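User: Show me a protein chain along with its predicted structure.
Assistant: Here is one chain, sequence first, then C-alpha cells.
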Amino acid sequence: MDNFEIKFVKYLNQIGSKKIDKFLGAVNAVGFLAFFWTVLAAVAITAHPIIAWRFMAAVSIVLLLHFTITEGIIKHFLTRFFSKRKRPYVAYPDLIKSVGKKFSDSSFPSSHMATTVAMLVVIVSFYPSLLILSILMIALMAFSRLHNGMHYPSDVAVGILLGYAYGWLAMEIIRTLF
C-alpha cells in the first residue's frame, strides 16, 4: 500500500469531533442515501412530469450498471481470483478508527462514490442548475469516505471515475433511445 494514502487517510481520520463523526456517519448510511435519492427522484418527477420517464430510465440504467459492474463483477466476482483490498480501518487498526457502519467488503472501489457521482451526473444532466450543489455533495461524500476510514484516496478516485462513466453512459443511452 502506498504510504501517502495511509498517511492521508490517517490525517483526515483524526480531523473533527464526535459531532462531525456522527454527521459523517449519517451521511454515509445506506438508508440515508436510499432515502436521499428517493426524495430527489420524487421531487424531480413531481416537479417535471414530462421528463419523468427519461429521468427514471436513466436512474435505472445507472443502478443496473453500478450493481452489475462495481458490486457484482469488481467487488464480488473478481475478489474470488484476487485478494480483497482491506479497508483502512481493518488494515491499520492502530492508526485509523472506523466511523459509522463497518463495511466488510473490499474497499476498492468506493461504491458510495460510484453511486453518488453516477446519480448526480444524471441529475445535473436534467437539472444543470444543480451543478454546484452536486459538486459539494461529491466533495462531502469523498471527504467522509476517507475520514470514516472506509477508503483510500485511490478507492475514491476510481469510484468517481466509475460513477461518471455510469452516469455518462446512462445519459447516452437515454439520448439514443428517446
